[in-house]
Amino acid sequence: MWMSPGLGVKRWLALFVICTLIGAVGVLHFTWTGPLHFTATRWILWVNALIRPEVMPLYVGGVVLMLLALIGALWSIMMLNRSVLRGTGTAPEQAVDLMYQNRHLSRGPRIVTLGGGTGMSNLLSGLRVHTGNTTAIVTVADDGGSSGRLRQSLDMIAPGDLTDCYAALSDSPVMARLLLHRFARGDGIQGHTFGNLMLATLSEQEGSLSDAMLDIHEVLRIRGRVYPAATQPPTLVAHLKDGRTVRGESQFATQVSPSRIDHVTLDPPDLPALPEVVQAIRDADQIVLGPGSLYTSIIPALLVPAVAQALRQTPAPLIYVASLMTEPGETDDLTLEAHVQAITRHLGRTPDCVLVNNAVPPRDVIARYAAEGAHLLSLSGASRDLRGRSVILPLLHPGQARHDPAALAQALLYAAPRRDQTV
């Protein structure tokens, strides 16, 4: 593994060997021409006396001594590195793996993902194997559950989806597990996750969660970056086709039906975004929307003015990971083309590429979702324009109705267009 391409080890090892040989020649020149000439002569005569000329030539003895000295020098460097690694808390046997991962991942594509929910965290868990240049821009309009309680109590942006994304990108399995731990008992903390409470603590200490971003990335040791789409807590408002409005993401599932959502807005509408978010979009090789709920995960992240403007101006291809199924109370009877049209209306830009799953879930899974009012999304009845933008692949997690993280990451890396390609 130490000799694997890209680690940056072979070049320095070669330089060390060359410098050692040059140093040996310099020492020989100094001793033979300087005041140590007598000592060097006695040393050579003593070594020659140990070698039988009939067994090996005399010069071979010098080569053997030189190789033994070089091996000793390399051994001393290796032991020095082991001591340094142990002193920093890194197991020596893991050092080469960490170096390979960091070197390999640092050359990965710059991918920006927008959305929230479990779909976003699943995508990030697949991308983290291929690149360390992922930036997740997470919607923070959630007002239910643990996030809603913390938001109301501390006037902070919703931390729930951020926690899921941090766990998905964390290099520490223990930390990832702790972030997602939900307290089942305890006055005041029941129902909260450890990650949400940690983000609330950092937000309280730094003044806001956006000011604590650098500390969070350093503490959690994540591959990539995770940022909130907005720096202030917004309220998501659904404007229905029958003229009604529904305020609060948590109310959509119960208040939208029997009507449909015409469009959604944020209150207040002029939310600021972090400069790092805008810069990440400008520098991206790919922009990925989803997977996730259309009106409560993906579109809210597109409604922040600075984010929307950067997305419209970037030359990077915009890729929409199509939802697998409709969501009761949010996208009832909405076709896949209607999903894409909703993104276009809210953002002002049509996705350049649409990743569509063509694998079919098991019948019992389809029946279970159908009983809840959800149905599969496909390209059936889609226009020629949408079909031309679509990349159709098996993206389904075996036996389930959700995307497979590994298959989705592979599709984004190899099937979807890059900045220098056109659809």
Q: Overall pLDDT, averaged?
A: 85
CATH fold category name of the largest domain: Rossmann fold
Largest sheet: 7 strands, parallel
How would you spell out the order of helices and strands? HHHHEHEHHHHHEEEHEHEHHEHEHHEH
Percent helix, as a range, is 40-55%
Domain tally: 2
Beta content comes to: 5-15%
Contiguous runs where pLDDT drops below 50 for at least 5 residues: none
The number of strands is 10
CATH architecture of the largest domain: 3-Layer(aba) Sandwich
CATH superfamily of the largest domain: CofD-like domains
Function: Required for morphogenesis under gluconeogenic growth conditions.
Keywords: Cytoplasm, Membrane, Transmembrane, Transmembrane helix
Organism: Deinococcus soli
GO cellular component, one term: cytoplasm
Q: Can you describe this structure?
A:
The chain is of the alpha/beta class. It has two domains: 10-104, no CATH class; 109-415, CofD-like domains (Rossmann fold, 3-Layer(aba) Sandwich). It is built from 18 helices and ten strands. The protein has helices spanning 10-33, 37-50, 58-87, 92-106, 117-127, 145-154, 160-169, 173-179, 194-206, 213-220, 252-255, 275-283, 294-302, 305-313, 336-347, 363-371, 384-389, 405-415; strands spanning 111-115, 134-138, 225-228, 235-240, 245-247, 261-267, 286-289, 318-321, 353-357, 390-393. Helix 5 crosses helix 18 (405-415), helix 7 (160-169) runs antiparallel to helix 8 (173-179) and helix 13 runs parallel beside helix 15 (336-347). The longest helix has 30 residues, at 58-87. The two termini are 39 Å apart. The model has no long low-confidence stretch (mean pLDDT 85). The chain crosses the membrane at residues 12-32, 56-77. One of its GO terms (biological process) is regulation of cell shape.
